[in-house]
Amino acid sequence: SEHLAGAYYNLALTLSLEGDASAALENVELASAIHRELMNGPSGGETQTESLAKCYDLMALIQENQSQLREAITTYERLIDLPGGDSRSTEGVRRLARACLRLATLQATMGDFKAAETAASNAIEVLQDAQSEGALSQEVGEYLGIALAARAEIHDELGHHKEAVADWDSVLRDNPQPIYQLRRGVSMARAGDHAGASEILTEGNFIDE
């Protein structure tokens, strides 16, 4: 059964690359069903869980590409809810963080910024845990910066401008790009710190003195 699931997954991957989304979804669903059955059986465990996570990851990506956003949100939620914890592999941690971040992006696109805030926070927590354990040392900074920037934008949408500034501060510590300085200045202005925002924007040559 596991070999059959692998065959369905590989076929789904090939079909998705060839642009046959409908057939790809059908095959990845078949692979997922087998892995779910094996995961819940007597020989189930970490391997089946990670294999099922891979299936959900591919399924959600195909759904996104087909603009099936609600379906993709549900699939990412199923991926995130899979058991794993400390037993996740490096790839599993990366996949979980990416799923949380994609979920946040889709929820924000649908206008559900509160849910998006939670999903982005979950991505940050996963990455910070991995960072504290010394895992993914090079990648964690990049993923974490992306997740923090996403949450900062969501904070602004919710009117949580001080929290947005705090997230931009965290981003800028590791990645002092001008665009992030600009976004921090905008969040500061929205938080009511117009003098501080003006100073930052002037120092960064974003506005003329």
Any chance you could write out the topology, listing elements then pairs?
Elements: H1 2-17, H2 21-39, H3 46-65, H4 69-80, H5 90-109, H6 113-132, H7 137-158, H8 161-174, H9 178-190, H10 194-203
Helix pairs in contact: 1-2, 2-3, 3-4, 3-5, 4-5, 5-6, 5-7, 6-7, 7-8, 8-9, 9-10
N-C termini distance: 69 Å
What order do the helices and strands follow? HHHHHHHHHH
Q: Kindly state the mean pLDDT as a whole number?
A: 89
**What is the radius of gyration computed over CA atoms, rounded to a whole number of angstroms?**
20 Å
Assembly state here? single chain
How would you sum up the major sheet? none
Low-confidence stretches: none
Number of strands: 0
Helix content: over 70%
H/I helix tally: 10
Strand content: under 5%
From the spread of the alpha carbons, the general shape counts as: elongated
What structural class do you assign from the helix and strand content?
mainly alpha
